[in-house]
Structures
1.
Amino acid sequence: ALTPASNLSRKVSASLAARSAVDSRQESINAAITAQLAAKKIDYSKLTKEQQQNVYVDVVVQMSAAPASTNGSLISQYSSTAQIQEETRKVIAAQDSIKKAVQKITGQTASESYGYVVNGFATKAKVRDLEAIKKVAGVKSVTVNTVYYPSEANANSMANVQSVWSAYKYKGEGTVVSVIDTGIDPNHKDMRLSSE
């Protein structure tokens, strides 16, 4: 039988666990913001609290509605490229009212729209506006983009890219690279933008 003391203890434990999860999520968001700004040579920790709240960051806004790959509009084994593109276009078109609501908050338009694997769009937002965007009807999550850096120090020399850099004066700065093969599984855990 539960005693009042043990019941209180369980409530306190649950409350602490919930607070820990929120703190962990906030640390992850702060790390992503710090990395984005560091890539622009801005030290987030040296900004005032007001400056930290007013800085723009790149985010992906994910919709509550399912993307074309999982909303039942396509037969995965038999859909043609044209059908996939059409259903993806429909998903993106349905984002319009949410994009407008987010634009009213941020003053920014969507830079990219996604509809096949993820139903969402990319935009810029001030840190202070992230919570307001999450409250827009139809928004599932707002994810601050993660900055990635190469982990293989020898890859450039192995691929002999220095000669290309010398010959063409182009190193690919600002280029977004994505590798998607025909074996994509939109339900795989690594294809989720957030844990929400």
2.
Amino acid sequence: CSSDLDGKLNTGIKDKYGRIQAVIDDFIRFGASEEIGYLNKPHIGTDVLKHVMKEMREALRRQGVATDFCLVSEPLRRYAAEDAAWIKTKGLPYEEFLQHTIQSDIVVEVVQSRQVGITVRALEAMFYHKKLITNNAAIRNTPLYYPCNVLIWEPGVQEKLPAFLQAAYQPLPEAVEKRYTFAAWLDNFLQPGAAD
């Protein structure tokens, strides 16, 4: 689900996991009109969208979550004063991004509708022993999925969020981490079936 600058909510995907409805339910919970839950082409307006996003950020802060975002600016777009520290004219260099990851407790990833499989963000979270919040439901079917370390953003997740945030990261078995190393990938590439 994405929102353009006019506050229109649209997506071009078929959503068998209910992720779109989860996002819309969250928008309603944080102040959007209930009509976006049943309209075919919902629109909440930029002014309401900004308020909803602020309420979501505040809900995370009330749970004790300190947020660190890097927003890449869009030409001619105006941003809230409290976001000024995170506005960049271009994306972070990868080394700087990794430093943010290392200093964080939780990695948040939002996969695009056409992405499939495990992402680099999920691997970074595993290798740096960070918890992961993701909308990638496919991760549930991988060895990386441990509910204490990975929270899939889907319907009903809000009730699980406080416990997830408070729980400590649980180290994965060495065999799981080893499976996703470059050496294991290379072995599998050169000798298909070797990693299984």
